[in-house]
Amino acid sequence: MSIELGHFALILAAAIAVAQSLVGFVFWRIGGRATAFVRQAAVLQFLLIVVSFLALVQAFVLSDFSVALAYEYSHTLQPLLYKITSVWGNHEGSMLLWLLVLALFGAAVAVFGRNLPGDLLALVLGVQGALGAAFISFTIFTSNPFERMNPVPFEGRDLNPILQDIGLAIHPPLLYVGYVGLSVCFSFAIAALVSGRVDAAWARWVRPWALASWTFLTLGIAMGSYWAYYELGWGGWWFWDPVENASLMPWLAATALLHSALVMEKRVALKVWTIFLAILAFSLSLLGMFLVRSGILTSVHSFAADPTRGMVILAMLAVAIGGAFALFALRARTLRVGGLFAPISREGALILNNLFLSTAVVAVLVGTLYPLILQAAGGPMISVGAPFFDLTFGALMVPLLILLPLGPFLAWKRGDFIAVIQRLAGAAGLALLLMVVTVLLVGGQVSLATFGLLLGFWVAIGAIAEIVDRIRLGRIPFGQSWRRLKGLPKTAWSTALAHFGVGIAVLGIVSVSAWETEKVVSIGVGESVTLSGYEVRLNDVQQIAGSNYVAERVVFDVIAPDQSVRSAFSEKRVYTASRQPSTEAGILTYGLSQFYISLGDRDEEGNRVVRVWYKPYITLMWYGAVIMAFAGFLSLSDRRLRVGAPKTARQKPKQQPEPAE
Amino acid sequence: MTVWLFIGGTAVLVALALAYASRPKKGQTGVVLQSLSNEDHFKVQLAEIEADVKSGRLGETEAEAARAELARELIHHRSIAQAGLPEPSDRWVGPGLALASLSTVGLAVIVYAFIGTPDQPAAPMAMRVLEEGNPISFAQAITRVETQLLVTPDDIDGWQVLAPAYMRAQRFSDAADAYRRILELKPPDADTLTDFAQALLFDNQGVAPLEAIEALEQAVEMDPTHPRPRFFLAGDATRQEDWDNAITQWNELLSLATGDEPWLDVAKEGLSIAMARGELLPQKTIPQPSVLEDPAQAELIRSMVAGLAERLEQDGGSIEEWTRLVRSYLVLGETENARQAYEKALLTNPGAEERVELDALARDAGFTGENE
């Protein structure tokens, strides 16, 4: 019965979303009662989807195979955790999770938006309601998770083995929070265009949502990258897979949005551009949804190969994106242009940041869609591979990273480039020194990697330098510096931390790309292989039985250069219900580096083909992402409103103005 | 029905919640005032500037410039707010919201009525396993153990549950495989060897294949005082008309008897048949000793037939199943039961063209006609 109640709750949520959007659009000028109605509707919509989601989770946990979805994607022998994660390991269930997050954000806007003007809130929730209505209906009518089976099958068909992993428990929910959080920015943008009111207050309301989405997207992408790294067994961490790109593009757009919203909040400039980015970011996340769910791609991520669904999503995409941009084209002109600023200023630096980021979005977009469009037009099947992305994306990121540390040093409205360079000279020197030391230690030659290292150190140290500069360390007595340090607002810390995280991630990416070593050997029990000073001995082959799979587990002893011995386990599993194989790589972490052992087939002599990698400093890239996400949370926790004090024209540069906020 | 109660309850609650939220309240502000409330934002910003000046983060000149900018923004903001649109009429709000509340839940109930399946109960695993007593759930239990064993093929307890279950389900070949697996997993004992042989025997329509004979002989060797393997060996020797061997085996078996075994009569009869036939060699008109002479088998068959009969009477069944039931009763010699089963089969399967085989069987048994 709970299943049917869950089904009804979902349908009711759709109906409420329709009402919410109609009332929002028709009565937004009234505010008052109408606003109270849409707020209540948003909260109810969320509660109903929670009921619906819990009903589905219950069906999976209890192995209720009268629910077709539970039959298709779960199994009685799964551990409890994977019974739960199987709920969103498929198209229909993940749609429901998506809706849950959408409704959660709608409800959050309704609850936390008490201070928003009633008319703006009504409009925002109206747009959220329209999105909800469209996507809940899509779920109910083309991908209903509550479809029933009669007669009830006795045993389920189990989830794809590579999805039975803790990574799946975390990665999609994180990403969905990120993707769907952007819908709030989208709704705010539409509301701004409809009402014609865009000001600093608007930016202030939008920024937390953009920030939250960005933070979760960062975590979700990093998690996904790590999952692909350890679960797919190729030792790679980014494949320029269209679906990965689909998550990267909204992230880039959200990063740009974050920065431009900053300008708008503090300086009332870049209004039109910020609104454009808000629409773009969510459009890109919808595009990702289309790529994954339409079946035009074949990848780990592609759920459904149902052309109807693809067409429906495409239609919704066209309406949402097309409508939003049409509205944008109509109304953008009526928005007042905000504050003026000189090219060399904090605003200018942020524009440059936006320019590079949005160009990168276009580069990735072209690389992702071009093969698909070419194929759809009857052209040959081509694959735009890593070289294209490495070149174009890299070429765009390099100047961005070079300029990154300069931005926070520039004053608002008009900055002094030479003075900034002077203040950063120390950081640049230190970065250069670290680079030289590292290269000497590794014993490498001067190559692109050296330059990459320099870049990473430059960004990371530049971020620290900003804090050092703000507290005037060394220029005023230490006690005063200490007081300044304690008095620094959280936003200053979060800016520096996020930029520091970027630098750390760059260092990880560069070192693993440049100095990774790899060997493929065929060894038997008792034999060993040596790589980068690590000796790997194949110690034992065991047959083990998991709860719903049987596996051949190969035990390796890894002897590190310091003679410490640790065991690594690589497995080849066969899941009993689906008869599908999967591999588990053995990974050992040494400090910041990792040793990675992947298992191949047996050769004729009964030896195992073993592929080993040594990945120096690879974990830095994920730590970098975690630092960035932490910075996001830190910034979210700062509720203070700040003004970007302009630098007045009459002042002489020599007077050393206070570093502006 | 309870489903509809819950659905109705949810719908009413939701409609009430929407109506309650949108009830008219005193002191609600129109749009112009709302826009002006935006000025709070400027006040907060101003306070921030002052706080920054106080903490020394902002110089006085910068603060001056920031205040001036803020003031310009505020003036602009006010000019928009005052020149704003006329207060819109809210005459339609009340009815509109009421209509929205009601039509929302109405729409949901109608859509659900079309696409929902309110009558289908939930069927969680635990409930499906609990449905005991009917052959389907028995088969499901077997499937469950089978699945488990796919994962843990070395689980001897699992095989020991599964093997007799296969026997009960008349899946003799699977039973033989299961016993074979048990024998691989633990050292053989006389009982398991005999069970294994019995499964092979049943799978082969009562004719023991070589593998079964070997298993029985091994069982005798391991436990010479165990009657069951000897019973099967004697029976098979009798079936094969190997009278000398049969006489020896029956005698050996009888020597183990203490006087109250259920197989005692059969063994004595077997011995007497073997002795009689052995003396009368080479007489050819020997009746095949039916499997019924084996009391263990007969008991097994009776229980299977009883199970089949019970299921067919409860749930009905296909014409093939009824035919099998009637034939089983006939083989067991329970003619009256066979007749009753036939009559029930006629009631549940009135279509004569489907019962060709059953009718032929019944005619041979001599109880057609009167029921037609």
Describe the structure.
- The complex is a heterodimer of chains A (661) and B (372).
- Chain A is of the alpha+beta class and 661 residues long.
- Among the domains of chain A are: 1-160, no CATH class; 416-515 and 633-639; 517-615.
- Chain A is built from 18 helices and 9 strands.
- In chain A, strand 4 and strand 5 (565-575) form a beta hairpin.
- In chain A, helix 2 (32-61) packs antiparallel against helix 5 (91-112) and helix 5 (91-112) packs antiparallel against helix 6.
- The N and C termini of chain A lie far apart (57 Å).
- Mean pLDDT of chain A is 84; it is low at 650-661.
- Among the domains of chain B are: 1-22 and 97-118, no CATH class; 43-80; 295-371, Serine Threonine Protein Phosphatase 5, Tetratricopeptide repeat.
- Chain B has helices at residues 2-21, 31-36, 39-54, 60-82, 93-115, 125-130, 135-151, 156-168, 172-185, 190-203, 210-222, 227-239, 243-256, 264-279, 295-315, 319-332, 335-348, 356-365.
- Chain B is 72% helix and 0% strand.
- Chain B is mainly α and 372 residues long.
- Chain B is elongated, with a radius of gyration of 43 Å.
- At the A-B interface, helix 1, helix 2, helix 6 and helix 8 of A face helix 1, helix 2, helix 3, helix 4 and helix 5 of B.
Give the SSE order of chain A as H and E letters: HHHHHHHHHHHHHHHHHEEEEEEEEEH
Order of helices and strands of chain B: HHHHHHHHHHHHHHHHHH
Tell me, briefly, the overall form of chain A. globular
Major sheet characteristics of chain A: 5 strands, antiparallel
Count of distinct strands of chain B = 0
Q: How helix-rich are the residues of chain B, as a percent range?
A: over 70%
Beta-strand fraction estimate of chain B: under 5%
Q: Which structural class matches the secondary elements of chain A?
A: alpha+beta
Which percent range fits the helix content of chain A?
55-70%
Characterize the quaternary organization of these chains. Answer: heterodimer
Net shape of chain B = elongated
Give Rg of chain B in angstroms. 43 Å
Question: How widely separated are the two ends of chain A?
Answer: 57 Å
Mean pLDDT of chain B, to the nearest integer, reads 76
CATH architecture of the domain at 295-371 in chain B: Alpha Horseshoe
